[in-house]
Amino acid sequence: LAKPYGPHYEKNVMFLCNHNSCRSQMADGWLQQLRGKTSVGVASAGIVGGTAVKEGAITVMKEAGVDISSFTSDAMADFKPEDFDVVISCCGCGDKLDGDKEVWKKRPIFMDWNLDDPPAIDPGDLSAYRRVRDEVKVRVEELLRTLAKPYGPHYEKNVMFLCNHNSCRSQMADGWLQQLRGKTSVGVASAGIVGGTAVKEGAITVMKEAGVDISSFTSDAMADFKPEDFDVVISCCGCGDKLDGDKEVWKKRPIFMDWNLDDPPAIDPGDLSAYRRVRDEVKVRVEELLR
Q1: Which pairing describes strands 40-46 and 11-17: parallel, antiparallel, or unpaired?
Q2: What's the maximum distance between 2 C-alpha atoms anywhere in the chain?
Q3: Rounded Cα gap, residues 75 and 253, in angstroms
């Protein structure tokens, strides 16, 4: 558990460079500094092998409040690619990941940041180190924002739940999937075909009774998402016929289903019984989906 990466994190990132001496070390340091309570593990390594951490990198990172003086310069060969969800080449050296090393490029997310090499270009005043340090910080912040999303390329599969207004049934389904997925690599989002309005108080109340807090969920419009980001699209409300014209692409994802659930706000007698019944039906459907 003391390791900065591993199965005790939801996601793990590997930063690669030729020798794990500068850029990958900065990225490693920034991620450890910036991740906060986000469950993202991190390591860094050299594709060719480890040498030593550059003094210039240590100095400029310390100026920014990040101590990497105790970091070791390690070889990629000492790590297993399957331990990482995200692999980032910091130096434009992705073409060196060929042959038996190509497996590193086949992790769920692979990026090549192609950062300048400070030791090669610095004029002696550490200005190149500082510039690259700041560029790396921006890239790491962007990466953490991506990994914090409940759906995206950091998941093996992604599910979109649709409803007319993303106010009740699709919100329940979204909440259940986030609650029930455990360590299954399934991302999820929900949206309104017509548009977003607000999450119904009845839905919030009955989901809270079941131990699922959706009070912070936002009601979003389908137009704010891209269909190609999702493998599974589920219409919760029998409104698949509204996915016509330029919206029809949503029905052409690998899996499309129409659950045709009753609409609690329209039929509830005032005691939340319809909300509870649909809540429980949605749970069963989500459990089946995850199986």
Answers
A1: parallel
A2: 75
A3: 41
Which tokens belong to 277? 């019944």
Distance CA 244, CA 260 (A): 17
User: In the structure encoding, which two tokens stand for residue 134, read together?
Assistant: 């700041």
Q: Active-site residue among 22, 90, 91, 168? A: 91
Active-site residue, 91 included? yes
Q: Whose structure tokens read 């790590």? A: 79
Is residue 106 helix, strand or coil? helix
User: Residues 118, 142: contact at Cβ < 8 Å?
Assistant: no
Burial 49-84 (b: 16+ CB within 10 A, else e): ebeebbebbbebbeeeebebeebebbebeebebeeb
Instruction: Reply yes or no on whether 90 is catalytic.
Output: no
Which one has a higher pLDDT value, 183 or 172?
Answer: 172
pLDDT at 93: 85
CA Rg, the chain, in Å?
23
Residue 192, pLDDT > 70, answer yes
CA-CA distances (angstroms) from residue 276 to 192, 218, 235, 267, 280?
Answer: 21, 21, 19, 12, 6
- The confidence score (pLDDT) of residue 274 equals 98
Span of 32-36, 92-96, 187-191, 249-253 with lowest mean pLDDT: 92-96
Q: Report the alpha-carbon distance of residue 47 to residue 76 in Å, rounded.
A: 5
Q: What is the pLDDT of residues 198-238, one digit of tens each?
A: 999 999 999 999 999 999 999 999 999 999 999 999 999 98
Query: At a CB cut-off of 8 Å and minimum separation 6, what does 231 contact?
Result: 157, 158, 159, 253, 254, 255
Q: What is the mean pLDDT of the chain?
A: 95
